[in-house]
Write a structure and sequence with these properties.
Radius of gyration: 37 Å
Structural class: alpha+beta
Strand order of the largest sheet: 2-1-5-4-3
Largest sheet: 5 strands, antiparallel
Number of strands: 25
Distance between the termini: 107 Å
Length: 720
């Protein structure tokens, strides 16, 4: 039988096989399996033609033919480099793959079957019988006739090509765990087991230095292959025993110079490691006798060791000098990727700490608050600028704020922190939501200024923000939005939907696009639920933004009044947020409670000379009904009289007096139509002007002013 297929054959399998220069049994491998070379010898009773031992050692090309069910019909994985690949006729080709790659490769195979278009040069790993893996370049070629199935050509990766492919793969993630895992998988081409142990400071993203003294602490960052390991063996996420950390560190930093070492056999390993505890922690099994330890060195002056890469081999496969050089070259090429991932981890941790620092702590007595913040997945561009906050204002109202700063990383975090603190300060000073957004709009414009703004080319233009102020007495909410998605309101009867907030450009828009910020006012009776969020929660490539908001409304409407709000918020986010987030996800739920009617009282008085006396009389009568202490009653009566006197003197129109009883004290409010701001001056107490504010200042825990459309409200809080 001719060992070379006809040149006129149109079968891709025959064409690939002809390039092998080897005999291919027409019936494929026998049912017993095994290497094709051995099967061929027994079938023909003669030795097959050979290109020489050297040619077989250098051969890196193989071919597999599969049918429409993706089962092997013929194969030629005869070269020594493919030893251990159990390609049995009739078995699924996916049996050659690591389990994690089966779905992807199966999809590619079926795609070529359906379309007839070849899939060329995919870097792939094939699984040997002993659990080790072989890196190959895998191409899927359609047959000339559909019934002939597919031909899968396999090219074992040459060392130089493998080095290039490994470096490219390792640099694709900014997550330090995934970076270490990619490096370990690449190192597996030189051994049976590969592990990456990183300095704990590198693992956590802290700064590293050339410190020569001090205790070294290593943590296992990656380990391949994935299998059941013996008890006591260090797996990813575990800290190495202190003796093991010390031994590895001393081994690779001998004479204060980082260098690779090889321990060739098990006897030498036992002699070096010594302790049975260290042996159990570091030696992966009886079959792995020798190890190469290569330091991950940051190229600096002096060099800094980030960790140690370990490659373990069986005793019958000692490391050659050329292989050790290749291992050192690969680790040297990729150590900077580990350091980049460390820096990203550090930045990620810092920004995340700032994000969580801004999360609401409590909602107060009049509103129940729950918030969820989920940062983007670690391999994305970095933590974004989403922020959410809620806090009680001194005048008894509650502020709910959510924003989304453009960009990721420290630049976005710095802007986020500045806008969040500025918004809180302005709201606490009594400004309305639209006035606060005007100030934030100006701040974003200033931060973008080329001369006085942020450096490094970062721009926050287009950031969004939504501010809601809840009045627990009137049960109304005043809301303003700058380019943010509309909040969801769930009424006590369960009806849910987005608020009809008029669209507005984001913060820092061009002057020609700027418009006055609207204030949207709506009722929020006790039991209402308000949801504020950022776009990461509702954006889905498969849905329109309106559909995403509708899904959120449905999820929030399912929250029952008796549900624990924090748990309900987690359920909503779990139902809507994608598994791998490319953007931060933020949700704030606010359940309105408000004050009971019997805890508040409001009076309207004409701005006449007798208004202070009438106000004092009504306040005293109410406080006696509330069984208020006599000293508190007298203080509140005097304080209200002074505030009303000030309103009569400097304002026109009716005066509104409101008294609120809370768990912490009594809140007194006096509203008028004046626009002057009361200020506490350093005048003598005998001076007539300003003496009333000194009395208010002495009697109250705190006091302040907030502005309204018709004038102002001066408020003061008194301890009960």
């Amino acid at each position: 039988m001719d060992s070379t297929p006809s040149p006129s054959s149109s079968s891709p399998f025959e064409l690939v096989s002809s390039a092998l220069g080897r005999y291919i049994p027409r019936g494929g491998a026998t049912a017993a399996g095994g290497p094709v070379e051995a099967q061929g010898d027994r079938a023909t009773g003669r030795r097959m033609p050979d290109n020489g031992a050297a040619g077989r050692q250098d051969q890196i090309l193989g071919a597999i033919n599969v049918d429409g069910d993706l089962r092997i019909t013929r194969c030629n994985l005869d070269a020594p480099v493919f030893a251990g690949l159990n390609a049995v006729t009739g078995s699924p080709i996916v049996d050659l793959l690591p389990p994690r790659d089966v779905p992807t490769v199966t999809r590619r195979l079926r795609q070529v079957l359906e379309t007839g278009e070849a899939h060329v040069a995919r870097i792939q790993r094939l699984r040997r019988d002993d659990g080790s893996e072989l890196v190959v370049s895998l191409s899927i070629l359609p047959a000339a006739a559909p019934q002939e199935g597919l031909t899968v050509s396999v090219i074992a990766m040459a060392r130089r090509l493998h080095l290039y492919a490994a470096e490219t793969a390792i640099g694709t993630s900014l997550d330090i765990g995934e970076t270490a895992q990619s490096l370990a998988e690449s190192l597996l081409a030189w051994g049976d087991v590969a592990a990456i142990d990183l300095d704990f400071a590198v693992w956590t993203g802290e700064g590293v230095s050339e410190r020569a003294h001090g205790r070294i602490r290593l943590r296992r960052a990656a380990l391949v292959p994935d299998r059941a390991w013996p008890e006591g063996y260090v797996t990813p996420g575990d800290d190495l025993p202190s003796d093991a950390s010390r031994l590895l560190s001393q081994a690779v930093q001998r004479d204060d110079a980082p260098q690779a070492i090889v321990i060739p056999d098990r006897e030498s390993v036992e002699r070096v490691l010594g302790s049975p505890l260290v042996m159990r922690a570091l030696v992966p099994g009886d079959r792995s006798a020798g190890v190469a330890c290569i330091p991950l060195v940051l190229d600096s002056v002096p060099p800094v060791v980030l960790g140690v890469a370990e490659v373990w081999r069986r005793a019958d496969r000692p490391f050659r000098d050329s292989e050790l050089f290749e291992l050192q070259e690969l680790v040297a090429r990729t150590a900077h990727h580990v350091d980049l991932a460390r820096q990203h981890q550090r930045e990620h941790t810092q920004v995340l700490a700032l994000q969580r620092r801004l999360l609401p702590r409590t909602g107060g007595d009049t509103v129940e608050i729950a918030s969820i913040y989920q940062p983007a997945t670690p391999d994305s561009a970095g933590v974004g600028g989403d922020w959410v906050n809620s806090f009680p204002l001194p005048d008894g109202r509650t502020a709910l704020v959510v924003g989304d700063v453009v960009g990721h990383g420290l630049g976005a975090a710095a802007t986020m922190g500045q806008l969040s603190m500025e918004a809180r300060a302005l709201l606490s000073a009594g400004l309305a939501p639209d006035e606060v957004l005007e100030h934030l709009d100006e701040t974003v414009s200033l931060l973008d200024d080329a001369e006085s703004g942020l450096a490094a080319g970062y721009s926050a233009l287009g950031s969004t923000c939504c501010i809601a102020l809840y009045d627990p007495v009137s049960h109304r909410v005043a809301l303003s939005s700058a380019g943010h998605l509309p909040p969801i309101l769930v009424s006590p009867d369960g009806h849910a939907g987005p608020l009809a907030v008029r669209p507005h450009p984001g913060l820092g828009a061009e002057f020609a696009l700027r418009e006055p910020f609207d204030v949207h006012t709506f009722d929020a009776p006790p039991g209402s639920l308000l949801a504020l969020y950022t776009d990461g929660l509702v954006e889905d490539p498969a849905l329109s933004i309106d559909e995403g908001i509708g899904r959120l409304a449905d999820a929030v409407s399912a929250v029952h009044p008796w549900d624990a709000l924090q748990q309900a918020a987690r359920r909503v986010v779990a139902a809507l947020a994608p598994v791998r987030q490319r953007d931060d996800v933020t949700l704030l739920l606010a359940r309105m409670i408000g004050y009971r009617k019997e805890d508040t009282a409001t009076w309207r008085l004409p701005a006449r000379y007798d208004a202070p006396a009438r106000a004092r009389a009504q306040v005293v009568a109410l406080l006696r009904q509330w069984h208020t202490r006599e000293d508190t009653l007298n203080n509140v009566s005097l304080l209200v009289g002074e505030l009303v006197t000030n309103a009569v003197r400097f304002a026109t129109g009716p005066i509104t007096v409101r008294l609120i009883r809370s768990g912490h004290g009594l809140l007194c409010e006096v509203g008028d139509t004046g626009n002057g701001r009361p200020r506490l001056s350093r005048r003598d107490l005998l001076d007539e002007g300003g003496r009333g504010l000194h009395i208010v200042h002495r009697l109250s825990k705190r006091w302040g002013v907030r502005w309204t459309d018709s004038g102002k409200v001066v408020w003061a809080e008194v301890a009960r």
